[in-house]
Design brief:
This protein has 155 residues and is of the alpha+beta class. It has one domain: RutC-like (60s Ribosomal Protein L30, Chain: A, 2-Layer Sandwich), CATH 3.30.1330. Helix content is 30%, strand content 28%. Strands 1-2-7-5-6 form a five-stranded mixed sheet. Strand 5, helix 3 and strand 6 form a beta-alpha-beta unit. Helix 2 crosses helix 3. The radius of gyration is 15 Å and the shape is globular.
């Protein structure tokens, strides 16, 4: 029987991907006590980088929001692994960190990151509300348009 969060994902028409393997020397998540730190996740869809380029150059704000949504789905896949397969163990999304590959002069990083933040709230309700940092950067690994990391508390 699917848990409450898995059922919510289904209501939203979302399916979590398999947890992505790291592309360098790091672990996809670290757990200490009841806290989980999820490493930065790229906008992978079906195992392929779905959104590349820079916001304000070749990527629109709408495409960037979809990119951060994909990143957050990949965060959830890692989180599911960290929680032993049970996303109902999530007590609170404490913080999201967003990295937005940005052309010079692009200043709408916060709007782009709303794709991930809005999805967090849609999935977890009040437990999905979080602190956040969003940073514009000149380039991300594999030319990804966005990357999202998370700090989450478990029950």
């Amino acid at each position: 029987m699917a848990g409450r969060i898995e059922a919510r994902l289904a209501e939203l028409g979302l399916t979590l991907p398999p947890a992505a393997k790291p592309i360098a020397t790091y672990v996809p998540f670290a757990v200490t006590g009841k806290l989980v730190v999820v490493s930065g996740q790229l906008p992978l869809k079906d195992g392929v980088l779905a959104v590349t380029g820079k916001l304000g150059e070749t990527v629109s704000v709408d495409q960037g929001q979809e990119s951060t949504r994909l990143c957050f789905l990949n965060v959830l896949a890692q989180l599911r692994e960290a929680a032993g397969g049970d996303l109902d163990r999530v007590k609170q999304v404490l913080r999201l960190g967003g990295f937005i590959a940005s052309a010079p002069g692009f200043t709408q990083q916060a709007l782009v990151m709303n794709g991930a933040s809005d999805l967090s709230v849609a999935v977890f309700g009040e437990a999905g509300r979080h602190a956040r940092t969003t940073i514009g950067v000149p380039v991300l690994p594999a030319d990804a348009a966005t990357e999202v990391e998370a700090l989450v508390e478990l029950y």
